[in-house]
Amino acid sequence: MTYCVGLRLNDGLVFMSDTRTNAGVDNFSVTRKMFTWDVPGERVITLMTAGNLATTQALVSLLDERSKIVEERNPTILELPTMFQVARLVGATLKEVINDSASEGQEATSKFKASVIVGGQIKGGSPTLFMIYPEGNFIEITEDSPFFQIGEAKYGKPIIVRAYDPDMSFADTIKLLLVSFDSTIKANLSVGMPLDLQVYVKDSFEVTNKPRIEADDPYYNSVSTGWSDALKNALTQLPSYNED
């Protein structure tokens, strides 16, 4: 399992993903789940993956390979005119990988499934996000649904829902996402450090901020400790249950 979040603000986009993969309770490893393609001054496209690792790695490898062999694969994600068209291409490629991985006959393909968040901006359009399902279909971000999650989403979602505001600064948004990830990590062993973070500023058509947050990061630990203390203090201030 994994946990990835893509969130749209008035000032741009923020992406965060964990890096844990597991094949059982005693077999954990670290694998990147966030990938970016860009043409400076013209487009930035970021993709995050969750699900079967072989499927997601094949998806990213195919997209990357086809973006470099333009004469054989045209158009590529580096040439498509809109983010909608990019989402269609990613969805079709994901479906292709899953179908190719499945055995012939009646065997279910669920073990090969994966889901994807793809977002970014192409010149002439606005920053946007899409969530792509294993079947290849997808939905786009809206004002009513301003963020997408894939993987182990249930523990971190309430925090984002309660605190998100499209006018938030990038700094406050990163703090919000760290709280969401910290709550998820504490509740589920299949999500873990380090975390990959990417901030995209609207109309910049470049990414300059792509840090990796390690488990010993001082700011992450201050947020984790501060959030735990704040929850304890809030609980003590709530009225006690009265059986009468």
Overall description:
Helix content is 33%, strand content 27%. The mean pLDDT is 92. It is an alpha+beta fold. A hairpin with a 5-residue loop joins strand 3 and strand 4 (28-30). The termini are far apart.
Which features characterize this protein?
244 residues; alpha+beta; 5-stranded antiparallel beta sheet; 5 helices; 12 strands; globular
Number of helical elements:
5
Strand order of the largest sheet: 10-1-2-11-12
* Secondary-structure class: alpha+beta
Oligomer: single chain
- Helical amount among residues, as a percent range? 25-40%
* Series of H and E elements: EEEEEEHHEEEEHHEEH
Radius of gyration equals 19 Å
Poorly predicted regions: none
Most strands sheet: 5 strands, antiparallel
Number of strands: 12
User: Mean of the pLDDT scores?
Assistant: 92
CA-based shape: globular
The separation of the N and C termini measures 45 Å
Strand content: 25-35%
Short description:
With 244 residues, the chain is an alpha+beta fold.
Element layout with pairings:
Blueprint: E1 3-9, E2 12-17, E3 20-22, E4 28-30, E5 34-39, E6 43-51, H1 53-68, H2 83-101, E7 114-122, E8 128-132, E9 138-140, E10 147-151, H3 157-163, H4 170-187, E11 195-201, E12 212-213, H5 218-237
